[in-house]
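In the previous chapter we treated chains in isolation. Here, by contrast, the input contains two separate entities that must be folded as one system, with a combined length of 1713 residues.
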Amino acid sequence: MKKIYNIWLLALVFVFTVSCDSGFEELNTSKTGAITLDPALILNNAVIFSSIPAGSLNYELGIVQQVISPNTGVLEGANFNKNNSGNTVANWVNYFQNTVKYANDVIVRTEEDPERANLYNMARIIRANAFIILTDTYGSVPYDEGGKGYTDQIFFPTYQTQEAIYTDIIQVLQAATSALGAGGKIETADVLYAGNIDKWKKFGNSLLLRAGMRLGQVNETAAKAAVAAALSGGVILANADNASIKHDANYVNGVGNTLNGTEAANFYLAAPFVNALKTNSDPRLPAIAIRFVGATSGPAQVAGVATKVAADQFGLPMGSTDAAADAAGATLPGGGSRYAFSQVDRTRMVKRTSPLFLVTAAQNNLLLAEARFKNYIATGDAQTYFSDGIKAHMDQMASFDANSAVAAADRDTYVSSRTATFAGNELAQINYEYWIASFLNGPEAWANFRRSGFPALVENPFAGKDVAFITRLTYPPSEILVNSVNVQAAIAEQGPDKLDTKLWWDK
Amino acid sequence: MKKYYLLFGMLLLMHSQVISQQTEVYAALHKPVKVMPQEKDSSPLKQVLTEVERSFQVSIAYKDEWIENKQVYFSSSAFKAPEQALDSLLKDTGLYYEKAGEKFYVIYKKNKKAAGVPQSSAVVMPSLFLAATEDLATPFAVNFTQLPTIEAPLAVTVSGTVKDESGGGFPGVNVVVKGTATGTTTDTNGNYSLSVENESAVLVFSFVGYKTEEASISGRTVIDITMTPDVQSLDEIVVTALGIERSARSLGYATSKVNSEQLSVNRTTNVMNALQGKIAGVNISSLGTGPAGTSKIRIRGQSSITGQNNPLIVINGVPIDNTNFGTNQGNTAGDNSIANRGGGASTDGGDGLSSINPDDIESMQVLKGATAAALYGSRAKDGVIMITTKSRGTSSGIGVTYNMNYTNETPLDFTDYQYEFGQGEYGAGPATPGALPNPTSGQWSFGPRIEPGMNQLLFQNVTVPYEAQKGILNKFYRNGQNFTNSISISANSDKGGLNISFANLDSKGITPNNTYKRQTVNLGFGYDLSDKLSVKGNINYSHEYNKNPPVVSDQDNSIPTSLYAMANTMPLNVLEENMYNPGGGEYLYSRFTNRTNPYWVLAQVKQNIRRDRIFGNFSAKYDFTKWLSAQVRIGQDFWTRDQDYINLPTGKASISSGSILSAVPGFYNGLYTQDARRFRETNVDFLITAAQTFNDFGVNVAVGGNQMRRRSELNSVQVTDFVVLDLYTVQNGRAKDPLYDLRERGVNSLYATAEVNYKELLYLNATIRNDWFSTLSPDNWSILYPSVSLSYVFTESFGTKPDWLEFGKFRAAYASVGSDTDVPEYANVLFYGVNGNQFAGQAVGNFGAVVPNANLRPMTVEETELGLDLRMFESRVNLDVAVYRKLTTDQIVNAQISDGSGFTTTRINSGKSENKGIEMMVNVLPVKTDNFQWDFTFAGAYNTTEVLSLLTENPGENITVGSHVFNGFVQQIVGEEMGQIVGYGYLRDDGSKNADNLGKIVFGANGLPQRTAALIPFGSALPKWTGGFTNTFNFKGLIASFLIDFKLGGKVLSGTNFNAYRHGLSKETLVGREGGLLDANGADPGAVIGDGVNANSEVNTVAAKAEDYYSVVRGSQLVEPVIYNAGYWKLRQITIGYDFTKFFKPTSPIKGVKLDFVANNVLMLKKWVPNIDPESFSYTSDNVVGLESPGVPTTRSLGFNLNVKF
């Protein structure tokens, strides 16, 4: 009996001592995570996050005076021309933590794999798109070293100037678009174009066109070269080729989600936008806007009092606080308060599932109109590009919602009225239309407004504003906190970290 | 010098359970045997008898002179019974013995029949005494040279009753006439009777483990005495790590013992909350989150930078899970805190301790320092709470105990709001001309001055008087109730015993739809299968149902957030009657749509949490010899937890302005989640112990190993938008977000401990342990760490010690502990995941925001402590003090990195912090008479923790570990105390333009105070001083005690005051309400001219509107006005009890009845933060410590506890 116990005990001690770490590697391997994953699926996430974040409601859409909020507090930003660090970070967080991170992962994993050459170049294009928005928003940003926290263990990336970033983006876009289709598999899992090489090339060249036009005032030579290269490579000129994120119920449109949620009653079309469309009898106004006549609260914004008629639309005056907006609202036809101003229709253009357009045929035609007008390119006709651009946008409206469709007759009437006054007002008209064609793509509307100076928006009248015009957004507090050496170096080079410091291409 | 000894051992230590018996007692008892009589190798009989008494917990009475100079030998074979030992010992001595009572033996000279010992006497001693003659040579306490013969007349007979501290009869107490050998012991009911020759004699009452009492006869014939436990008893047995029992005198470190009554009489639903303020160095916070909420326990402060500071909970020697499901929104340091998915449902789902029934606890031991816990290894770096549950009866046969506990809880309202200006904004109230038909100021009290006769128009068509609504907290909340019934049945015999209990807790929270029910079944048993083999085990099953734990501290769905900021003229009945809008959604009463109508929350926000849990362990012990034994044990804690909750109900105003339809046509909006979790932790361990004595030296050695495995699973589905209205199921949801999570980890350990003592005066203990952690890389997953401690009972080595000092012990200890608790599973590799839903028909991949680090090392805690333990002035003054220094190095820091890298954090080993503190327990008996006794105990501690390094040692370097749901942060800052509350403060004049203005607040051109450019630390949220004073009064068995506790020295950022300030409820906001420029409708928005200077250092003359002025806490995130001292003094507990047992005859089936009236959280004595109880809410995570946000009001509970024994 005793012996049995002794042996048992010895065996027990033995078991413990010889196996103190056996099976640990197995134990510490996640059974719900994969060690590797098809990079095409990671690129899909990079593409999805290319969509414009909801934060554009607080800055970009307000800076270009299209959508603003009368609310103070968390919604403050461009409505009062104030620096609100909670909202200036939106693009930074969205693109660095998602698109840049995921695209970098794909690039690193496919760089040496000829079979995935197309995926590699698609990832480079997606990364370039994100960096155009990032540098247009902040100026200098971590570009070369950005997104490489895991692959290169770079935790505190250095910044590049906007000039260096654009120079490289133009080079990368040219290289990537021309390398597409040279070999390797077709990436059919791709959610943007299902791996369609031709469309990806057009998308890449469209970004090249956009980047090139951006540089017009600071490096016309480079601008011309890029625009010419883009055009010869082929850009998106038909709505069927538009680059858009087709949001669904699971992957919702950021702006649409916000406007159909907590902030439904807190954002309104800005008066300058509504007035401009009204003045020009723009058929897009009834396709975009809705107004709840006499509404005095969010719940009072019901279908029964809704009007989509252009003449009934009234935009919220810029710089209106709650009280001012209420007072102004009371004077509207049918009375009401701030809740009675016109809004983007949440049931049509800004649903949760509304698509978000990254690059459109309308934008490209308008850019080409300007390029032709300035003789960056020698082919085509500026006015034709111009009218094609307007038409493309009018036709694009139906893709938001069938009820936002613009009738062909209305479209053509409007186009002819605009072309009638085109001569002599080319730049103003082209960029005015670009402003409308980029509605809901805040970063692009804002960048083009800064570049072109059109439309000629009036300074926000709010008394307590920090700056007259917002020409960039401030860096995230987290960068000041943890990456201070690098961000301070960038600030020293670029100018104060303020909302009205002008960026390199913005002259 | 006394001639006779009556020594009584400690009662009731389970033989099979007591490892110390082999380590210590056996060592003394079984000295090596040599061949027969050699004078120098034998032991004095007296010494051996003493050891027999200790070993078997019996008392042996004898006459000194008979055993003096007698030497004995005894064999090393096992004595299983005292009879056996005495047979052997007395064999050749000419002495005999008799069992004179339960655990009582007398030694005499002639044959036992002649001794005349009654065979079944309840009153043993007097009979013995009366029968004593020289002839009979009675062994008992008679000094034959002094006493007259039996025929001599006795002067007086004194009788009486001796009671224990709870007022019950105290059997077996030794009663001796002082200065003589005359004496007796009390019977089973505590009665005694004694003949005394001298009326002025003094009686001495003594019992091991109790303080010796003296009473002068002074002519009396009846003397009743109440004995009080001697907390500093020399022979106190302490359960140390791994369940090893040791005598208190041998320990070189601080521990605290808690008896079951402290937990069960004046109880709380979460058992630990009852101990607030009672244990030095243990800081317990109840969190203001409902009856099933978490109990936050911190021992000797917190040391981990990233928030893992929970003590290990061990039940019957095996760790159990204490996973916390608390409210931790804003906790940004990824410390594995488990929170509900998605906003709007931040509730406290409780912790692991909540499934324990206080009635099942026999005792609790708190191991505070790393030394005490060294043998538990990694998870014990923050101390250990060791709970022993009941496993057998206390007397032979069957015993039944019934306990009923009832308390009623009243919500406490500490608000001191202004009621001069009512609902409205910028001076315009809901009835002011021009005000809107549907006023939405509901959460703002910046309206016009309240005057008699004014009306307000609410909810479009409701007109009610515009008058102050005071006391809404008490109108909204109900009284809570806790009702516990428990019954336990125990059995006991020579071979073993068992205890089985059933308990039902029925608790009604003060939130009207919140209930908590808990049923527990507990079985404990032990049995000696043979002389050598014994088994024991325990199983605890519990079922908990927590219904609608209140949403707290958040913006959405949180009743306290809305109520504490409710406009001060908003009548609750109007809110209740108008909660639905015509569309069926929430009627918007405030433009602040997140501030959900409290009644709508009650009606719409639902949550169910059901947990089934079974934990327990089985062990078998085999004694190879008297000095060597081995034990194996297997323990498991398994629970399943089903939870479903409505994150956002259909129609909530903040999700779509009160419409019940979402933008997805055909569906009703809302968000709903269903979770199922399974958790299993198994521990298998073995322990081999050996004990020997070599002359003056005793040695105990133990070697063991443990294998821990933990597996945790989560299945969760969250859905949004519903097909059928008000049907909250996952099938009914349109978009589904499924989630499965599986986490496994393991720790293997080998350890050894050794104790060497010299003459039981000087003890040296050492431990060594090696852990292997599965979560770390192979290069780093093994860590070896030691501890060493010393205990020196210096009073017993003095030649002559001072009269006033009975006992003095010095102790010193050093320990090191390695830990991986800050390292989550799978932290070494980047894992890819696939999104729950496809996009455009294609799968989408993802990976996390933390850069994995494959080279993490275990963190290390090194702790040094010194202690002193003194008993003075006849044990009426007792002191136990400890000082310690704890250095925590190689902490895992969730280092924030530039998100330009694509990632937000990475984990690195670099943090270092230092805890320093002093703990003190003082016990004084200021008054002690026969009928009245006053016992005073102070338990207090001072602790500070400094962050020594994060990524670098540069002072000021910081990491943000948590953020307030409203505004403000918690940071760890190098060179500062841990847990700094950080936010923007007032910008103050630098004095450069005008030295007189130095420090004055700077106002902008708009008249608003400007904020500092950078975040500034306002001080640590951690209390420096914690503790309490307990006073216990015993008047003739009626025992009253009260506890005053305190926490001092910490800061709080009060979210409740933040809202009260910005919404115009604070009295501070009365300044400048009138005298502004009237608006178009004649409303006066007020004019506040801040006291300070402008940017040019000139006196500020710009007036700001009142609402704008007081909103800076939000608009500018300027939180300085709402930073407060978080300290408090409270009258925590009052307990008044009486034991009615003495009124029952011994023949009665009822063996005992005890009734206590209890009160908890009785009175706030002092606090510094207005409008709230400083304890009303705190987060469970240390990463958001000190960030107060509206919680459920604290309650005062009143009730009773009835305990009946059969």
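The CA atoms of residues 279 and 436 of chain A lie 14 Å apart. Chain A has a mean pLDDT of 93. Compare these points with the single-chain example from earlier in the chapter.
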